[in-house]
Amino acid sequence: MTEFKVEGLAELQKMLDDLPANIEKNIMRGGLRAGAKVVQEEAQRVCPVGSGNLPKGEISGSLKNSIRISMKVRKGKVQAFVKAGDKVAFYAHMVEYGTASHLIKPRDRKSLFLAGLFKEVIKHPGATKKPFMRPALDNKAQDAIDTMADYIRERIPKEIEKLK
Q1: What is the pLDDT of residues 119-162, one digit of tens each?
Q2: How would DSSP label each residue in 36-81?
Q3: Total domain count for the chain?
């Protein structure tokens, strides 16, 4: 998890302090979501899309489609996360970080059936890493911060106007 600290926003903090807490929380939540959306879109753009033999039930682009934003609010602290992977695209971390070579053994049977042959053990060569989440964050972190700041700058005057 990567966190960014933005300093020098004393004026913003003063404005937020003047607003009711729930409005402040909603503005920050919206701003974080807007910033996270920038990273999500970049991750989807650079995400590798599989081809060839796909596992049962998977369609090409499942990993790309699994990239989503989630929000957490706890003790007044708002957090945004960009996550990849779901029940179908469970292998997101394996694509991002790669895998070492390993042996595949049957769980409940004596042998595995692969390519028309029965085998007791299959040596998997591993998979090279194809990072997409980290490069998305590295490439778009500043854009995400700028987008968040723009959202907050636009929203605060509207909320102050509503209070009058």
Answers
A1: 888 888 999 999 999 999 999 999 999 999 999 989 988 887 87
A2: HHHHHHHHHHH-----SS--TT--TTHHHHT-EEEEEEETTEEEEE
A3: 1
